[in-house]
Amino acid sequence: MNVPIATDESVRRIFEKMSEDSRYFTYVAEEDGIVVGFITCVEVLSFDDPDDYIKINGIAVLPEYRRRGLGQQLTERAEQDARHRGANSIGAATSLNRTGSQAMLNKFGYEKFAFWFHKKFSVK
């Protein structure tokens, strides 16, 4: 399975759409005025979680800035915001071959408990 790679253009388009919807929130890590990492989340409604939950849509830190605690700081900030919004949980989905992301989430206290199924539609 191929892991999709985000491009500058796709990231710009997505952030533009998310900025128009108050359910989304994003935090960035900056160093010397340069964005070196981000986490973006969305409030999600679910029948099995009546108080809403927060889904981490994406988290990334530039390779040369990893292992400095930025991912943990970004995740903790998102968790703080989730609590402030009244959510009772926070979660993330990651592809099977992103073992680094899985290890990081495990380290931060996240538990694997489900599978995520995904189906692509062809664009017409």
What does the model show?
The protein has 124 residues and is α+β, with helices and mostly antiparallel strands. It has one domain (8-107): Aminopeptidase. It is built from 3 helices and 4 strands; from the N terminus they run αβββαβα. The protein has helices at 8-18, 70-84, 99-107, and strands at 24-31, 34-46, 49-61, 90-92. A 4-stranded mixed sheet has the order 1-2-3-4, with helices on one face. α2 links the parallel β3 (49-61) and β4 (90-92). The chain is globular.
Outline of the structure:
The chain is α+β, with helices and mostly antiparallel strands.
Features:
single chain, 124 residues, alpha+beta, 3 helices, globular
Overall mean confidence score, pLDDT: 87
Beta-strand residue percentage: 25-35%
Radius of gyration: 15 Å
Structural class: alpha+beta
